[in-house]
Design goal:
The chain has 294 residues and is α/β, with parallel strands linked by helices. The protein has helices at 7-19, 35-45, 75-84, 95-98, 119-122, 126-141, 153-165, 195-200, 203-216, 222-236, and strands spanning 2-4, 24-29, 50-55, 89-91, 145-149, 171-175, 239-247, 260-269, 272-282, 288-290. β2, α2 and β3 (50-55) form a beta-alpha-beta unit. α6 packs across α7 (153-165) and α9 (203-216) packs antiparallel against α10. Bound molecules: pantoate (PAF).
Length: 294
């Protein structure tokens, strides 16, 4: 595995692969890699000849009061994991490489509507930071395919919309959420949980799946389901940010045209904010059917 710390180095490495006609798949990350990231890499390997992974803790997607400096940086361990997975190229740029003119004068890529709701309401500017850095990374790597986790379902939807709106010739592949045995979605943030918080954390996924089962059993008072779920989370010790039953395509309220529902939640345990989601789709006879996404 070759590590490139600058755009120039990466271009030299990519030129060779491109001249050999090899296809390129890209997995953007912020490092601190866990099984969830490695599942993205494993999926990526099945899609193209060359796997490029980036590790870049993007300051532009951190809001005021969010701990950019405290974000875990574990480059040596990350490199070992990527090497073991057969990744050919690691792009680990510095902030000056991505934002040579500073961030305040940076052109911003912003996806309206999809980026304003749910996590976008509680983390203003966060998704603009994500779409700006992802579009820069896409322009640098110029992959054929890029892979994102379904755990960050809103991020995945926003990236798909950006690629479509900006006519980027990149196929976006979503990968099923990787979970611990008790259902907790793998996340870099799980490492911040105390032992007690870790024992409560799986309840987030459980609450989502209970809600999904209720909808699959034709319970259609969504407002009631949402407030019941929020109450359950509060009682367990979470501070819920949102628990929302939405159209999976628009992330707006479910309508008669909705073909897939996403149930999305964000809730804090102490100082740790966890997010998760589950989905259901309409089957051909018009009943809600659970998707096997755990
Ligand atoms: O999901 C993440 O880790 C980040 O938001 C991403 C896509 C790497 C952009 O910084």
């Amino acid at each position: 595995m070759r590590t490139c710390n600058s755009n120039a180095q990466l271009q030299t490495a990519l030129k060779r692969f491109r001249s050999e006609g090899q296809s390129i798949v890209f997995v953007p990350t912020m490092g601190n890699l866990h099984e969830g990231h490695l599942d993205l890499v494993r999926k990526a390997r099945t899609l193209c000849d060359i796997v490029v992974v980036s590790i870049f803790v993007n300051p532009l997607q951190f809001g005021a009061g969010e701990d950019l400096d405290g974000y875990p940086r574990t480059m040596a361990a990350d490199k070992e994991k990527l090497f073991a997975e057969g990744v050919q190229l690691l792009y680990a740029p510095g902030v000056e490489d991505i934002y040579p003119d500073g961030m305040s004068r940076q052109t911003i890529v912003s996806v309206p509507e999809l980026g304003d709701t749910l996590c976008g309401s509680s983390r203003p500017g966060h998704f603009d930071g994500v779409t700006t850095v992802v579009s820069k990374l896409f322009n640098i790597v110029q992959p054929d395919v890029s892979v994102f986790g379904e755990k960050d379902f809103q991020q995945l939807s926003i990236v798909r919309k950006m690629v479509k709106d900006l006519c980027m010739a990149i196929e976006i592949i979503g990968v099923k959420t990787t979970r611990d045995e008790d259902g907790l979605a793998k996340s870099s943030r799980n490492g911040y949980l105390s032992q007690t918080e870790r024992s409560i954390a799986p309840l987030l996924h459980q609450t989502l799946t209970n809600c999904r089962e209720a909808i699959a059993c034709d319970f259609d008072n969504f407002l009631q389901l949402e407030s019941h779920a929020r109450m359950k989370l509060l009682q367990a010790g979470f501070e819920p940010d949102y628990f929302a039953i939405r159209d999976a395509r628009t992330l707006r309220a479910v309508t008669e045209d909705t073909e897939e529902i996403a149930i999305l939640a964000a809730a804090s345990l102490g100082n740790t904010r966890l997010i998760d989601n589950v989905r259901l789709s309409l089957n051909p006879v018009g009943d809600w059917r659970m998707l096997a996404d755990g």
